[in-house]
Amino acid sequence: MSSTASPTPEPAVDDQPFVSGFTPALKGQRAECDGGRPVEGTKYAGRQEFTGTLTGDYRDFGPYPWRWYLLGELTRKPPGFAYDAVWCDADSLTLIDETGRPLDAGLE
Questions:
Q1: What string of DSSP letters covers the chain?
Q2: Which pLDDT score, from 0 to 100, does residue 14 have?
Q3: How many CB atoms lie within 10 A of CB 39?
């Protein structure tokens, strides 16, 4: 998961390491995302959990696309997390209902 948030997807350019896209069906869906990252100032890593609303924006990295979705309007984030949105690996996302329960439908 990345803490670099960009609300507007960049156009696909040959020298960019990713291709941007948009999935209209995911815009406005509530989701949870978890992952790990290094703990600043230490040699350790820790779990990070986020809850927010999917924007529908995604980025595909690599020749066998590794998809990341932009999760915004965060209602849960780690202490000290300075951003309003986060990029989440598609495999780390769970769609949820208004009560926070997982939905049966997966990401399209």
A1: -B----SSPPPP-TTSSEEEEE-GGGTT-EEEEEEEEEPTTSS-EEEEEEEEEEEEEEEEETTTTEEEEEEEEEEE--TT---S-EEEEGGGEEEB-TTSPBPS----
A2: 58
A3: 11
The pTM of the full predicted model, rounded to 2 decimals, is: 0.78
- 64: CB partners within 8 A, 6+ apart: none
Residue 3's pLDDT is 47
List, for residues 38-87, the tens digit of each pLDDT value: 877 889 888 899 999 999 999 999 988 899 999 999 999 988 888 999 99
Write down the H helix ranges in the chain.
none
Sequence letter at residue 71: L
Query: Token digits for 13?
Result: 């350019």
